[in-house]
Amino acid sequence: MSSQVSRSLWRVFGTNLKAWRVRRGLTQEEAAHRCHVPYKRWQELEAGRVNTTLTTLARIAHALRLPPADLLRTPRA
User: Distance between CA 26 and CA 37 in Å, rounded?
Assistant: First the structure.
């Protein structure tokens, strides 16, 4: 996978992560704590600047009560 495609996926993940966090009525700090992710890392994830492991993805999805795939879906136009 090219680095451009990877960064695009990170942005999609970050956008979805923020949208689901807001839907759940959580601040970044609350969501990070609930998902056992350092707050600074959470900010970077939402900004689409960093990658994450599948384990962390699964933990975030579980804490936000949604299927992991929902965090990776490309928004429909």
Answer: 14
Can you give the residue ranges of every domain in the chain?
3-65
Q: CA dist 54 to 32, 42, 64, Å?
A: 16, 15, 15
pTM, whole model, 2 decimals?
Answer: 0.89
At the top level of CATH, the class of 3-65 is mainly alpha
70, 61 contact by CB (below 8 A): yes
What's the CA gap between 70 and 11, in Å, rounded? 14
For 21-70, write each residue's pLDDT tens digit. Answer: 999 999 999 999 999 999 999 999 999 999 999 999 999 999 999 999 99
